[in-house]
Amino acid sequence: MFILRLSNSYHGVYMGIYEEEIVNLGSNVAWGIRKYAERGIVNGGFCYGYYNDKNRKWSINEEEANVVRQIYRAALKGKSYGVIAEELTSDKIPSPAGKEYWHPGTVKKILTNVTYNGDYLFQKTFIKDTLEGTVVTNNGELPMYLIENHHEAIIDKDVWNEVQTILRKRSIQYSQQFTKKKLKKNSKNRAFEKKFYCGECGNLIGHYRYVSNNKESNNWKCNHARRYYLKDKCTAPGFQQEYIELNFMKLLQSIKDNKDFMNQVHQMIIKTDLDDNDMELEQELRNKMDRLNQELYLVVDEELNKQEEDCTKVDELTDGIISLQNQLNEFTNRKELAEHYQEELKWFENEINELKNDLSFRRDIFERMIVSGTIDKNSKIIYKFIFGLEWSIDYCYDDYKNFKITKKKEDRKRKLLNSKEVKALLKFCKEPRKFNEMFYFMNTTKFISKSHLRTSIIYPLLKSGKLKKTCQDNKSLMYYS
């Protein structure tokens, strides 16, 4: 039997010719199908709600068609994709893919598919790469052909058009209400990607962004909880990104103020490193391995001089040496890990000691020190450090909300004290003024109550030293700047 072997160069040439033939054949077939489509002849694949009968014609699958009609009736009532998907899932109706739950995207495809009114839109997608079989959406690269009354309709054309009108109006309202502006640079904290896990179901916590009234919010929530269409979805809430950043910085401040964390890390390093007994055992293993190596050398030399090969003794010695080497490797790894922990802890301690009261997120510390984290439904965050130690603080989402309220009040006060009206008041008080004079002056530009003037303007200005009292006698008390 003769076998023809091709060199690499010939193989490449023949493969090139073969691939070219496939591309040409695919193009010719596609051209022929398009020509038929121009004449209104299409034998395309059927979709959910239909099946091909024995004559290869589209026929209605009544069981599936009833589901399609149910979806359109719900849309006419103004129900969203998500609500319809939830209802279908709760009714235990299998999805077109045979799954237990319905995805809102599947509902949207059914509601926007022209096929259900009896027409057929040919070439909504096309094969971009014949060899790889890559299918892409047709965005105008190729002509599309609408074949009217191609098959029996499940949805009346008037009903279908009414649903499209409802969907278009809803889309416009949504875009007007939730106009998504471009993401700010670095608004998403990528240090949190694939770092946090849900304390309820164990799934990853992912990022999502919410924009309303031109305000952007970056949030993190359990990926399983975000799939609201699931029957057994997780109930864990979401959290603002700033809360996680602030929680971590307060954790660092807590570690700085309390030496318990550092003490526990030192103890873990001591346990990881070799003690006197470990070092003595390590030396014994090395001595034993040296003896086995010498014995193996002699055995191998003896075996080479024999006529008959017997490797039993050699195998035994080799296995023993490998076993000893594995044990020694464990000791070596522990020493190296302890050294690594020591270096990282030294760096961490230096960074912690240099922390100021500024709570700006330290991404460098987070990425270098934190392996992962768990966030439970009560917003408690448990961080796992590279040392293998888990740590957390008593700071929850309610504390963060109170912090935001306080900060908002302080910002308002700061903005008020830096306003042009207050600056004008300080200029007015270059000469000592009585309270009533200050009150009437302020009300020439904007209305302000006497109590608000005292608590929100005069007292803070006195505290900052920008305003002073002439005396302590309330009757003759005057203020000057």
How many domains comprise the coordinates? 3
Tell me the β content: 5-15%
Q: Can you give the helix content as a percent range?
A: 40-55%
Average pLDDT confidence is 81
Structural class: alpha+beta
Order of helices and strands: HEEHHHEEEEHEEEHEHHHHHEEEHHHHEE
Distance between the termini: 111 Å
* Spatial arrangement of strands, main beta sheet: 7-11-12-13
C-alpha Rg (nearest Å) = 38 Å
Quick one: biggest sheet? 4 strands, mixed
Q: How many E strands?
A: 15
Could you say which overall geometry the principal axes of the C-alpha atoms support?
A: flat
Features:
481 residues, alpha+beta, Hect, E3 ligase catalytic domain fold, Arc Repressor Mutant, subunit A, 3 domains, four-stranded mixed sheet, three-stranded antiparallel sheet, disordered N terminus
Structural write-up:
The chain contains 15 helices and 15 strands. It is α+β, with helices and mostly antiparallel strands and 481 residues long. It has a four-stranded mixed β-sheet. It has a three-stranded antiparallel β-sheet with strand order 8-9-10. Helix 3 packs across helix 4 (104-111), helix 8 (260-272) packs antiparallel against helix 10 and helix 9 (276-304) packs antiparallel against helix 10 (312-353). The longest helix is centred in the last third of the chain and has 42 residues, at 312-353.
